[in-house]
């Protein structure tokens, strides 16, 4: 299951699930485009695809994603009615794997970077993931930080008091998770769950002996909103922390 140290990634997919994210999606995709550009400067021959999975969207998310797809051939859109972030991630990853497989790319050379539609990745996000992949990582668990813009100062301070942003952290965030396709497939992929699909996948990766790198070197900024899209997701945790600082778990 574990990729040999130094196995070179030749195809990369970015999967972005979205449910009614017209407010944040444009910034998320612009950040992803910048990260793709940074990566392709470093690796000119690398095949890259960004796939937005529009799940039961009733707002203008489709228009936002469509503008990127029309302007940039590296962007694709998949419209669905899953009503499940786990299934959205699963189907998005499946589509990336199918496209790369049709090109004859071995699973060990495919890397899938997962993020969220309310999150902004740094410019070096993908470059750093592949540096760790080249060093032998089967999966990269990145860190996230709530966007301070519009967020209650006390809540932000409580969040930081509970989360040490450093390498070798123990957190798992779907907004910042990269995985080699061979390891992903061996672990059974993301479960089609309403939430917790990221932690479930990482548990399976660990139990299967995958090499996992946890890093704060490619931190993602994610929305500090309290209105949850997925039950028991990041926003749900923030809301619980706001209501009961002692009892929230996450």
TrEMBL record:
Stored InterPro entries: Glyco_trans_2-like, Nucleotide-diphossugar_trans
One cellular-component annotation, GO: plasma membrane
Domain Glycosyltransferase 2-like: 14-158
Gene Ontology molecular functions: glycosyltransferase activity
Residue ranges that the Swiss-Prot or TrEMBL entry lists as coiled coil: none
Keyword annotations: Cell membrane, Glycosyltransferase, Membrane, Transferase
Keyword Protein biosynthesis among UniProt keywords: no
Subcellular location(s) of the protein: Cell membrane
Metabolic or biological pathway, per its Swiss-Prot or TrEMBL entry: Carotenoid biosynthesis; staphyloxanthin biosynthesis; staphyloxanthin from farnesyl diphosphate: step 4/5
Gene3D superfamilies: Spore Coat Polysaccharide Biosynthesis Protein SpsA, Chain A
Family under the similarity heading: Belongs to the glycosyltransferase 2 family. CrtQ subfamily.
Function: Catalyzes the glycosylation of 4,4'-diaponeurosporenoate, i.e. the esterification of glucose at the C1'' position with the carboxyl group of 4,4'-diaponeurosporenic acid, to form glycosyl-4,4'-diaponeurosporenoate. This is a step in the biosynthesis of staphyloxanthin, an orange pigment present in most staphylococci strains.
Name this protein carries in UniProt: 4,4'-diaponeurosporenoate glycosyltransferase
Species annotation: Pseudarthrobacter equi
């Amino acid at each position: 299951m574990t990729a040999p140290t130094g196995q070179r990634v030749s195809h990369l997919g970015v999967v972005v699930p979205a449910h009614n994210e017209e407010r944040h999606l444009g910034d998320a995709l612009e950040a992803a485009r910048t990260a793709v550009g940074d990566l392709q400067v470093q690796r000119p021959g690398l095949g890259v695809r960004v796939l937005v999975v529009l799940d039961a969207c009733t707002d203008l998310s489709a228009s936002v994603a469509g503008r990127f797809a029309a302007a940039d051939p590296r962007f694709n859109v998949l419209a669905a009615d899953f009503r499940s972030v786990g299934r959205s991630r699963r189907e998005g990853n499946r589509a990336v794997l199918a496209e790369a497989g049709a090109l004859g790319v071995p699973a060990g050379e495919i890397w899938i970077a997962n993020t969220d539609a309310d999150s902004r990745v740094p410019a070096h996000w993908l470059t750093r993931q592949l540096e760790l992949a080249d060093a032998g990582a089967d999966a990269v668990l990145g860190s996230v930080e709530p966007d301070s813009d519009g967020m209650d100062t006390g809540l932000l301070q409580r969040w930081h008091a509970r989360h040490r942003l450093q390498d070798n952290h123990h957190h798992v965030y779907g907004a910042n998770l990269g995985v080699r396709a061979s390891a992903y497939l061996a672990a059974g992929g993301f479960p089609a769950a309403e939430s917790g699909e990221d932690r479930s996948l990482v548990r399976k990766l660990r139990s299967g002996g995958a090499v996992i790198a946890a890093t704060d070197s490619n931190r993602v900024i994610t929305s500090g909103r309290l209105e949850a899209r997925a039950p028991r997701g990041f926003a749900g945790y923030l809301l619980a922390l706001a209501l009961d600082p002692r009892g929230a778990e996450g």
